[in-house]
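Ticket #311: bound-state structure for zinc ion.
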Amino acid sequence: VTDRTVLALDVGGTKLAAAVVDETGAFRCVEQVPTPQSSTAEAVWDACSALLRRCAVQVVEVAGVGVGCGGPMRWPDGVVSPLNMPAWRDFPLRERVSGLFPGVPIRVHNDAIAVAVGEHWRGAGQGTRSFLGMVVSTGVGGGLVLDGRLVDGASGNAGHIGHIVVDADGPICGCGGQGCLEAIARGPAIAGWAVSQGWRSPGATARELALDAEQGDGVALAAFARAGRALGIALSSAIALCDVEVVAIGGGVSQAGPPLWEPLQETLRRHLRLSFAADSRVVPAALGQRAGLIGAAAFVLGDRYWAVGAG
Ligand SMILES: [Zn+2]
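RESOLUTION: The complex was predicted; output attached.
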């Protein structure tokens, strides 16, 4: 039997998910639980470990485990400190998973990179040589596949498109910088800007804003237009720099429809004038919530998604 079957684990601030994935990208078992909140490091690990064990009993032989986890992390060591999971600071996730499944590859990477790899392997970027996968939700992240291979960068952080500067005089970003894409286009920033313009009251969400935009609310439409333009500016630069064929955008904000996508595409048409760049396409992601698990599996199943010698 040459079929290889791996486990995939997706570690996020609100949910933990695990699955059995085969070489075609098909799932055999998906287990999901809410992330234990205000909890100890060991309690969060126990929840991950239980998910992995429940999936492992479905498999004769586990060929490896791929993990997508919120950053920052030390890569490829898989020592993680996810911003949205205060219980884990310098948590040795890769070592712990390795303790459960000794002797097989354990590959831990940034969750946004897992989504990008999933979309390239089995989603909107399938078959492309040059691809950028993005997530626009509470944060803005991404991953780059260039010349058919995942680009890691010096420290495993290549693809951080959320921190491309789109307005040098713009709002302060969570990273400490100013005018980053994420400071304008992440969901809470879009809703916050709308509130500052008189829409509803603080605490209202980007999802509610999207519903109001659909109904034609002027402030809601302006808020998504502002975010769409910021995305268009960032992508114009990224596409020109990397000669990207396809960009796929997933995450909750990407589901806002024409109020976001029309200003985004119009901005691209205005700024992307070189012929190679004008042929590129920016499209919605295809895999939805499963992209992260599929990408995590691909870290083990697809050689082009893991750097030689990185473990
Ligand atoms: Zn930033």
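RESOLUTION NOTES: The first helix runs from residue 41 to 56.
TICKET STATUS: resolved
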